[in-house]
Amino acid sequence: MQRVSQKSLYLISISLILFIFLPSCKSKQPPPQKPPVAVTAFYVEQKPMPVQIKAIGNVEAYSQVSVKSQIGGILTRVHFKEGQFVKKGELLFTIDPAPYEAALKQAKANLARDIAQLQNARTEVARYGELVKKGYIAASQFDQIKTNADALEAAVKADEAIVENATLQLKYCYIHSPISGKAGSLIVHEGNLIKANADTPMVIINQIQPVYVTFSVPEQFLPEIKKYMSAGKVKTQVFINKDTEHPVEGILTFIENAVDPDTGTIKLKSIFNNNDNRLWPGQFVDILIQLTIQKDALVIPSKAVMTGQSGQFVYVIKNDLTVENRPVIISRTIGDESVIEKGLEPGEKVVTDGQMRLVPGSKVQEKESTESIKQ
User: Fold this and answer.
1) What is the pTM of this model?
2) CA within 13 Å, CB half, 2
3) Hey, what's the torsion of the CAs at 346, 349, 351, 353, to 10 degrees?
4) Helix (H, G, I), strand (E, B) or coil at 304
């Protein structure tokens, strides 16, 4: 019994050893290959692209006038309606002219009186001048007559100045528009007592043909803007309420003389004819500056660009249908297209859909035939 047991144990040990080592003698099977990832790809194109700067702008009146009265009196008539377009020189207000007409009449009467007295005094000076030469009167008497004539001449000049001032005061009774523009809310009404040079204007007029759009851009764009402005007119476009189909065309006209040190931006102004009155003072709009056209720019769809820990990159499809992680530098983005400054060559294919399932070296299969951006 003991021998049988030892033999059995021996056989069991041999069986265990074979059980352990026999599988390792079998040939190793290669791991199953992953199926290619279905992706969409586009060719890198080379085509003309505009060099643009975008910003948020604020519409400003070309000029704004706060209309005030230079004299006091009762407002007898308003010759326009609130919100009306008025022309330069158009009559806006009439202040009761009666007191000023009376003052002008009195001034003219005083002038006429003193002129008559001056003429008589001059006649006496001429007559007494002959008498003093012949010794018929004393020189002191002649001097007194001449002094009286000189005083009357000065009085006439003063009267003329008073008449001129009274005429001017009467003219101020009729207030005309200094510019052509849009009248705002009417602050005074007929029958109100108007004070001269009051703190509150009677009405504010905004000139909106043409009109300005003011905006700010980062200071790094300043050298390019100055460069293209010195070479010619720099065109700008304004988009209202995201309406990209009907921009308003204008010209860049003004660069502020200093960079704002708090924001690092430079203030600019563009002028627009605004013949259709689409732009309104105080309105916020999207503005675009087109500096030039870059020929042969490298362009890809913006959706091809990914962002990783090392920056922006794209997946480039190689000839063996594997992908390569390629860092790129984006010059600018226009709409749904990105202009590549560095990292790609014309004709290369980049993945635009399916990037999230890719790693460098992944095998890919295009969902559809590769197209160009233009299609």
Assistant:
1) 0.68
2) 0
3) 100
4) helix
Number of domains in the chain: 4
Whether residue 287 sits in one domain with residue 304: no
CA 133 to chain centre: 81
Task: Please report, in tens digits, the pLDDT of each residue of the chain (375 residues total).
Answer: 444 456 565 556 666 555 555 555 455 556 666 788 899 999 999 999 988 888 999 999 999 999 999 999 999 999 999 999 999 999 999 999 999 999 999 999 999 998 999 898 888 888 777 777 777 777 788 778 888 888 988 999 999 999 999 999 999 999 999 999 999 999 999 999 999 999 999 999 999 999 999 999 999 889 989 998 988 889 999 999 877 788 999 999 999 999 999 999 999 999 999 999 999 999 999 999 988 888 889 999 999 999 988 899 999 999 999 999 999 999 888 888 999 999 999 999 999 998 888 899 989 888 864 554 444
Q: Which of 295, 321, 344 is the last residue of a domain?
A: 295
273: CATH: 2.40.30.170
**Interatomic CA distance for residues 309 and 64, integer angstroms:** 52
User: What CATH number corresponds to the domain at position 130?
Assistant: 1.10.287.470
Q: Is 17 contained in some domain?
A: no
Distance between CA atoms of residues 235 and 233, nearest Å: 6
CA 180 vs. chain centroid, Å, equals 22
Task: Give start and end residues of each alpha helix (H) in 49-138.
Answer: 98-133
Instruction: Let me know: does 94 contact 174? Beta carbons within 8 Å.
Output: yes
Tokens standing for 211?
A: 């009109």
Tell me: cis bond preceding 210? Omega within 30 of 0 counts. yes
Residue 135: DSSP 8-state: T
Task: Look up the domain containing 188 and give its range.
Answer: 69-96+173-200
The enclosing domain of 194 has a CATH number of 2.40.50.100
